[in-house]
């Protein structure tokens, strides 16, 4: 009898313990996969603020390097594994995945103020008018240059200079004996690395990835001109090792005062003007990307954004988080915590209208202008069937862009000629398109 | 002892490995015959040999096979030759022998990813790297390792990782070398070089075979170093077969072609293994 | 010079040469360690900064951003767990092959090694789908299973080579006394081959610890070992070499130190049956 009471008691205790565990479980835990870029790391650090406002949601982070993240989330979403509740994806994936029905549309109701989102960014992240990913930060590309060096060389840099003029400025500033190189540009192979820049150059020379029948155009006259120009420019006036440099490497070079000019993502503006990391913070000037035959597609458009996979069982909590992280209030929170120069930019009109931001960010105007001038639906001189400035938003493009990137970095390092590189890239693109039965 | 008991003892290993081989292999064979792209997971039509054809006719295929073999043979050569020399060297007593040994084997414990990061950033970077600094100190133009000598850079990284393994095995073997025999040879007036050639090398024949065997398994699959440092480029200059398959599977998300590539890699690995086992096999009393 | 002096001089030269080679080969690790105590600007300064005021800020930052203890624990559990499991499976097999070889023993061993020839990335999809279907994604169990199977062939082979060279008479004597196969393994074979077993285990642990492909693709979050932690530090926006070095040092230190301590074991046991 005594034993029985003991057992009952034990049961009761364990039952109540189980119940309290159950009530703790009512709190939803969401897993957020993200890139290890500065703004995302900041978001991760601000998680307590979100959890405080929404005590029933706990956030778990998976922070990975860009390529590995892309592999992981693509595996996860295509196989419906459901490991992640929120994924960080780019402007390339958003419309394709949206079209596949893999993503839950972003809940833009109520206080979210979706009309505040910059129109080109919103368009790039939508498919048939539905927003499938909420922009966390957005970027275009522009020229960043050293006012002091350019002035000493007796040159000027202004909006929409011709590429030939940019080359002359690079030549005038180039001084490798002092460790200063005329121009730093991306050279590392990758469709999001060197091909982002090279495509914008090609666009401005009047080239396009595909013609109206989806035939790859990499061997066209315009591509040859553009890539020859690029290889010549970087070989003559670029830093050593350009063919393995991408954003990071160039940023470090520029911050060290080793680049006269740098054409890259607008997001760099907040880093190169930050005296804590840049030796040349007060000498940086900004200008809109150079052009040649046309202004169309001369600067790229990209956004890292948060999306919710259709397979998640925690869609509601995920929506709450996505809305929080891409809200005006979040931008304000970062502004108040870390200073207005460090807020994630390129997403909302209200950010650029904010007086505190305008005062803190000398690059605000140039950045907004660049983003607004990029039109993913009309980025080539000749008509093209695809959407996207520095990429074509079709599933096959990853393969095509990756190979083209490898070839062009080969041309840059001198292991093959530009004509050879473009020919191999075109052959490979043709193979992919044929295989996917475009023609 | 009854055969049945010996079979029973082997069973777990054999069954597990059989499952480990057959299940993924048969799935891979199946995938290699269908159209299977992660971006279109619902289109799964039978395509016959198309994936194999697509993989073999890839312009990167031949360079990748060549690079795989060059990488394998160079690293084998470097680790075996330097491994034998260094282990013979540190076999003799000298001041701080223990510490030297510890230092020499350390690289083997470093993760391949970290290995590549250290070499790429801090050693080979043409602007900030140690090598560039050494070059400029001597008034030379810094070498842009990863762009101009990509495969050689990878060979350096991989050798750095595997040389310690060779040293470990050879040092172990040398400890068991007959010292009396050596002393007798010395009495007879044999030089150090003679002893090395006629006593040490034959004694090491078997460990060399072991090192070649194990390293081959891992070197055919070198991947992390390439991914982190050169991404297979520039061009196809540092793309090996594993990286090419990775490219298909996880950059292009074409599982069908990647599976076909994986099967071709198995065939290649077995061809290599066949020749290697014939070359070193007589020393390999398996 | 007398003969003795000559010999001393030779020893000195040997030592000098060995030391310089060792220092050169160790330098990259040393440099990573040093860089982890620099500020980011010092890390990329030219000429390389040798004298600087060491800072711990990188380690603080790494600790803030990732749960080092969790990742380290995952690494320890998966590498030790799979090694122990593999040993339990491999020892009986190696014993049976070494002491009761049949006609097919050699073929079986070669076949076992050949299972390692299938490149991991080629079979990623099958394994990923299987793990998903059995609910093993992002669990330590998945890694333990894969690591066990991955290293099993090498472990069997190493143990086999060693067992084969044990004097058969001892076993026969034990059998005369009526020992079962179990007794033979536990009471005779194991005590005689502790050195070989521990060095085999060490090798397996090192290989598991440094494995990055499976851990990145199957266990990115809860069960992520240290190799996956490194992936969140490589090439972010901006060059953070100092932080990367700190994270790398943290990831490699346990296994390097472990290796140093067990170095003697390794050097005694990695015979692969080479001792005649």
TrEMBL record, chain A:
Pfam families: SBP_bac_1. This is Sugar ABC transporter substrate-binding protein. It comes from the Bacteria. Residues 1-26 form the signal peptide. Keywords: Signal. It is found in: Periplasm. GO terms for cellular component: periplasmic space. Belongs to the bacterial solute-binding protein 1 family.
UniProtKB/TrEMBL annotation, chain B:
It comes from the Bacteria. It is a multi-pass membrane protein. InterPro entries: MetI-like, MetI-like_sf. The chain crosses the membrane at residues 9-31, 69-90, 102-119, 151-174, 207-229, 249-277. Residues 65-276 form the ABC transmembrane type-1 domain. Gene3D superfamilies: MetI-like (1.10.3720.10). It is found in: Cell membrane. It holds the Pfam family BPD_transp_1. The keyword Membrane applies. Keywords: Cell membrane, Membrane, Transmembrane, Transmembrane helix, Transport. One of its GO terms (cellular component) is plasma membrane. One of its GO terms (biological process) is transmembrane transport. Belongs to the binding-protein-dependent transport system permease family. This is Sugar ABC transporter permease.
Automatic annotation (TrEMBL), chain C:
InterPro entries: BP-dep_ABC_trans_perm, MetI-like, MetI-like_sf. Belongs to the binding-protein-dependent transport system permease family. MalFG subfamily. GO terms for cellular component: plasma membrane. The keyword Transport applies. Coiled coil: none annotated. It is found in: Cell membrane. Signal peptide: none annotated. One of its GO terms (biological process) is transmembrane transport. This is Mannitol ABC transporter permease. It is a multi-pass membrane protein.
């Amino acid at each position: 009898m005594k034993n029985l009471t003991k057992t009952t008691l034990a049961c009761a205790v364990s039952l109540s313990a189980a119940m309290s565990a159950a009530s703790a479980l009512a709190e939803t835990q969401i897993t957020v996969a993200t890139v290890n870029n500065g703004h995302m790391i900041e978001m991760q650090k601000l998680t307590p603020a979100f959890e405080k406002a929404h005590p029933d949601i706990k956030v778990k982070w998976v922070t990975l390097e860009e390529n590995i993240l892309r592999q992981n989330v693509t595996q996860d979403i295509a196989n419906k594994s459901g490991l992640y509740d929120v994924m960080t994806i780019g402007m390339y994936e958003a419309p394709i995945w949206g079209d596949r029905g893999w993503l839950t549309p972003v809940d833009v109701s109520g206080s979210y103020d979706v009309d505040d989102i910059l129109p080109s960014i919103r368009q790039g992240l939508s498919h048939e008018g539905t927003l499938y990913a909420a922009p966390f930060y957005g970027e275009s590309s522009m020229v960043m240059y050293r006012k002091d060096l350019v002035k000493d060389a007796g040159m000027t840099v202004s909006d929409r200079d011709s590429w030939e003029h940019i080359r002359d400025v690079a030549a005038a500033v180039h001084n490798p004996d002092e460790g200063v190189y005329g121009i730093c540009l991306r050279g590392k192979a990758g469709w999001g690395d060197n091909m982002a820049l090279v495509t914008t150059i090609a666009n401005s020379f009047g080239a396009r990835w595909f013609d109206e029948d989806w035939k790859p155009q990499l061997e066209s006259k315009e591509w040859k001109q553009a890539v020859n120009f690029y290889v010549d420019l970087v070989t003559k006036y670029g830093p050593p090792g350009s063919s393995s440099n991408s954003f990071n490497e160039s940023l470090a070079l520029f911050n060290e005062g080793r680049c006269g000019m740098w054409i890259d993502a607008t997001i760099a503006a907040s880093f190169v003007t930050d005296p804590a990391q840049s030796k040349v913070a007060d000498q940086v000037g900004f200008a809109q990307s150079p052009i040649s035959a046309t202004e169309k597609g001369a600067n790229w458009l990209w956004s890292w954004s948060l999306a919710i996979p259709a397979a998640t069982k925690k869609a509601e909590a995920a929506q709450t988080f996505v809305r929080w992280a891409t809200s005006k209030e979040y931008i304000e929170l970062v502004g108040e915590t870390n200073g207005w120069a460090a807020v994630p930019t390129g997403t909302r009109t209200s950010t650029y209208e904010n007086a505190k931001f305008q005062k803190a960010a000398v690059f605000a105007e140039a950045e907004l202008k660049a983003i607004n001038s990029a039109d993913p639906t009309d980025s080539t001189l000749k008509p093209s069937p695809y959407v996207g400035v520095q990429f074509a938003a079709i599933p096959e493009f990853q393969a095509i862009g990756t190979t083209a990137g490898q070839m062009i970095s080969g041309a840059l390092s001198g292991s093959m000629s530009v004509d050879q590189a473009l020919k191999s890239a075109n052959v490979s693109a043709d193979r992919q398109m044929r295989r996917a039965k475009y023609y | 002892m009854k055969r049945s008991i010996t079979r029973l003892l082997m069973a777990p290993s054999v069954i597990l490995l059989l499952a480990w081989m057959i299940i993924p292999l048969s799935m891979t064979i199946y995938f290699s015959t269908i159209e299977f792209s992660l971006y279109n997971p619902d289109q799964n039509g039978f395509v016959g040999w198309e994936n194999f054809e697509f993989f073999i006719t890839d312009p990167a295929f031949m360079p990748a096979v060549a690079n795989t073999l060059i990488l394998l043979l160079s690293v084998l050569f470097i680790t075996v030759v330097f491994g034998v020399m260094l282990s013979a060297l540190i076999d003799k007593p000298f001041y701080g022998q223990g510490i030297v040994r510890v230092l020499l084997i350390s690289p083997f414990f470093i993760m391949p990813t970290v290995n590549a990061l250290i070499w790429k950033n801090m050693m080979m970077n043409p602007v900030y790297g140690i090598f560039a600094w050494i070059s400029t100190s001597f008034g030379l133009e810094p070498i842009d390792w990863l762009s101009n000598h990509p495969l050689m850079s990878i060979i350096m990284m991989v050798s750095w990782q595997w040389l310690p393994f060779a040293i470990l095995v050879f040092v172990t073997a040398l400890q068991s070398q007959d010292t009396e025999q050596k002393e007798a040879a010395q009495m007879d007036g044999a030089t150090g070089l003679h002893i090395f050639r006629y006593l040490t090398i034959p004694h090491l024949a078997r460990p060399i075979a072991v090192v070649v065997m194990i390293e081959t398994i891992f070197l055919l699959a070198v991947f992390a170093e390439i991914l982190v440092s050169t991404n297979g480029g520039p061009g196809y200059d540092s793309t090996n077969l594993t990286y090419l398959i990775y490219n298909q599977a996880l950059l292009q998300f074409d599982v069908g072609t990647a599976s076909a590539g994986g099967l071709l890699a198995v065939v290649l690995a077995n061809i290599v293994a066949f020749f290697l086992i014939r070359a070193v096999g007589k020393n390999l009393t398996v | 010079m007398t003969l003795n002096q000559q010999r001393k001089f030779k020893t000195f030269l040997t030592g000098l040469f060995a030391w310089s080679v060792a220092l050169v080969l160790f330098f990259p690790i040393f440099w990573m360690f040093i860089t982890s105590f620099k500020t980011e600007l010092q890390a990329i300064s030219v000429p390389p900064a040798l004298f600087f005021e060491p800072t711990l800020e990188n380690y603080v930052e790494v600790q803030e951003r990732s749960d080092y203890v969790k990742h380290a624990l995952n690494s320890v559990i998966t590498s030790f767990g799979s090694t122990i499991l593999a040993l339990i499976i491999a020892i009986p097999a190696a014993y049976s092959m070494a002491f009761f070889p049949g006609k097919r023993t050699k073929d079986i061993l070669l076949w076992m090694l050949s299972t390692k020839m299938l490149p991991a990335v080629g079979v990623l999809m099958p394994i990923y789908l299987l793990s998903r279907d059995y609910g093993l994604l992002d669990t330590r169990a998945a890694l333990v299973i894969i690591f066990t199977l991955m290293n099993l062939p090498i472990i069997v082979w190493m143990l086999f080579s060693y067992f084969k060279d044990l004097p058969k008479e001892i076993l026969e004597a034990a059998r005369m006394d009526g020992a079962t196969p179990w007794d033979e393994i536990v009471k005779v074979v194991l005590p005689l081959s502790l050195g070989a077993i521990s060095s085999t285990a060490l090798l397996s642990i090192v290989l598991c610890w440094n494995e990055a492909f499976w851990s990145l693709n199957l266990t990115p979050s809860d069960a992520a070992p240290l190799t996956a932690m490194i992936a969140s530090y490589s090439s972010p926006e901006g060059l953070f070499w100092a932080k990367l070095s700190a994270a790398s040092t943290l990831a490699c230190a346990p296994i390097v130190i472990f290796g140093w301590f067990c170095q003697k074991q390794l050097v005694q046991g990695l015979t692969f049956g080479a001792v005649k």
